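Archive transcription. Copying these from loose printouts into the bound notebook so they stop getting lost. Printout 1 of 2:
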Amino acid sequence: MPRPLIAGFVAVAISLFLAALSGLQGCAHVSAPRGGPPDTTPPSLVLVEPDSFAVVTEFRGSHGSVRFEFDEPISERNILGVVLMYPFDRRPDVDKGKRDLKVRPRIGWVDDRIYHIRIQPQLQDYFNNAIPDPIEHVVSTGLPIPDNRMIGVVYDRITGQVHRSARVDAVHLPDTLRYGLPADTSGRFTLARLPPGDYLAIGYEDVNNNLRADAFDRSDTIQVGLAADDSVTLEFRVFKHDTVGPVLSEVELLDSMMISLGFDGYLDPEAPVGVENVEIVSLPDSIPLAIDTVMHQSGYQAYQDSIREAEQARRDSLAAAEAAAAADTGGVAQEAAPPPTRRQAGREAPPAQEPAVAGPLPDQRIVAFLASPLPPGSYVARVSDIVNLSGLTGGGELEFEREAPEDETEEPPPQGEGAS
């Protein structure tokens, strides 16, 4: 072959290779179109086919899709991650056109099933303008679409505050079809238009973002019966579930008559505790000590608060009586400094955030009140049948010491002849 012809072939091959490489690089990065004024308006939905709440019996297997059309071109960025479809089995098939999305179940349409499609607010145009709110769409392949709903709030069981990044699933029984959605940033959710029947409703923290509750997720489960026109209110209190009962891990002497017993997990504050759950035995003679009462840490805290309030009320009463006596005698009562619990005007501290859920919060301690002061010496604390948040019972035993106070260990001064 002539040398000029070979050179021509080589030049053409290099040009084609460079053009292909440039095209690959261009596809790897989706950027805004150049030229013209900047676009700051997110895409707007202009048409959905078929309409929401439509019963579409011709959707079967891979035939048919729900089409969402927008008023401007939409970006390919993360397009498969922004579309969810329930009942959830896996991510749906999403075909993207210039201005539209066509969505269908990856496993195909099934007769007599209600489908929920949710487009997340991460969908955006080529100028990175994302839709402000999720798009919800419901269609059926045969079943009438009911007007029912599950509404409620997801709380953090430990703090009592609303959970700001929770999800809620409703698993239909017995076929285990799973519907769901994320709660909003106030922990609230509305899961509507579900097939009537019995459900296992699950509120959970989706740690690994796999759209299902795993054993390591903080969660709470409620059984729900839902009719076609029901509106059911749910309150989830999510926490990390234990697989074993609580174990005694610490003994702390609060004073000579109060012993705090710590555990390796959170206890159920509504499960009763009493003197039958705790035993304090002296060593080495194994003589049990009398216990007056046992309470959860929340009860102990309420007890301490009541003592402080009673003391403050006593001080206020004495101050009022002194002021009244001074007024009767014509004297001037010395103005007392305000108690430390009352703040000066203009120096108000922001109030502490109160738990959003009613009732006592869980803790990892109980407190035992002895019937008489604990003498110095060695002891063992035995605890049984203590219930944790998962409803499992446990306990354990630990040895501890009460050392003699310093004034009891000092040697008495010498007596007798020569003593001054």
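Printout 2 of 2:
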Amino acid sequence: MTERWRPGFDTSVKDIINAASKVTGQRIISKNYPRRNGDPDILVVDPALVQKTLNWNAKNSYLRQIVLDAWNCHKIRFK
């Protein structure tokens, strides 16, 4: 499954897992399962709709930086 959640980029769940593993320095064990009934082939996000609906713009579109920011926030919040 490919998720387009960064403007102009296709990002798979596997890409996110790999980035998280590199950022955290920890091995992340994952398993692949068949798609469940009703699961979409892809998910597509319209950044303009997100901006209009939530009044929010992404500050960057680099996956590693997005994961790093989330990891740093998590470490502060859950000390």
